[in-house]
Specification:
SH3 type barrels, three-stranded antiparallel β-sheet, five-stranded antiparallel β-sheet, mainly beta, 164 residues, globular
Amino acid sequence: MSETSTKPYLLRAIYEWCTDNGYTPYVAAMVDAQTRVPREFVKNGEIVLNISFSATSGLKMDNDFIHFNARFGGVSREISVPVNNVVAIYARENGQGMAFEVSKPAQDDAGIPVEPADNMQPDAASAPTPTAVPSPQAESADTSPDDNPEPPKKGGRPTLTRIK
C-alpha cells in the first residue's frame, strides 16, 4: 500500500489555524483540465481562492480534491481543485502559511495539458515539497539593504510571495 501524501493534512491544518485566529484562508492553485474554476479569474495559469467559511458553502478538503460552492459576480459556482495543484495556502491578513512546489503539467503542441497514463506513478523527486512562507513582518537582523532592494509597500491588499 502506498503512503498517503502529507499535503492534504498540511492544507487542513493551515486552514484550521487561519480560522482559529480569525484570519481569512486563501488558496493559490495551478489550473489544468481537472480544475473546475471560473476561467475568467485565472491569471497566468493560476487562481487564488478565498476558502473562508463566509465565502464558501459546503467546503470539503479531501485527500485528493478541495470541493466547495462559491459566488463569483453573484453567480454560485461549483469549485473543484486537485490537492496536487495547490501552490500555497495562507492567511490574507498577514501572508503566513505554506507554499508547495507544483510541477507544470506537460502540454502537447496545441498547448493542451497532457494527462499522464494511469499506471505512471510520480517519482519522489517530482513529489510536492512543502516550504514555509515567512511572515512579511519577520526580518532577520543580518539582512543587508542590498538583499532587499525595494522596501515593502504599506497598505493595499496583501500578496503572497513564493520563495524558491
